[in-house]
Amino acid sequence: MSMSSETIVLPPSVSSRPAAIGLGDLPIIPVIILATIAFMAIFADVLAPHNPEVGSLTARFHPPFWQAGGNIDHLLGTDQLGRDVLSRLIFGARVSMVVGFTAVIFAGVVGTVLGILAGYLGGWVDQLIMRITDAWLALPALTFAIFLAAIVGPSMWNIVIILGLVYWTRYARVVRGEVLSLKEREFVRLAIVAGCSKMTIMRRHILPNVVNSAIVLATLMLGVVIVTEASLSFLGVGVPPPQPAWGLMLSDGKQGLMVGYWWLTVLPGCCIMLMVLSANLLGDWLRVKLDPQLRQL
Amino acid sequence: MRQFVARRLGYSLLSLLVLSLTIFFFVRVTGDPAALLVEPGASDEDIAAIHHKFGLDQPLWAQYGLFMMSLARGDFGQSFYYQTPVLDLYLDRLPNSLLLALVAMAFSLLVGIPTGILAAVRVGRFWDSAGKLFALLGLSLPSFFVGLVLILVFSVYLGWLPSSGSGGVLHILMPAFALGWYFAAAHMRLTRSSMLEVLGSEYVKLARLKGLPQSWVIGKHAFKNALIPVVTLAGINLVLMINVAVVVETVFAWPGVGRLLYEGISFRDFPVVQGIVIMGGTMIVVVNLVVDVVYAVIDPRIRLEK
Question: Which of A42, A98, A186, B79 would you call most buried, defined as having the most Cβ atoms within 10 angstroms of its Cβ?
Answer without folding.
Answer: B79
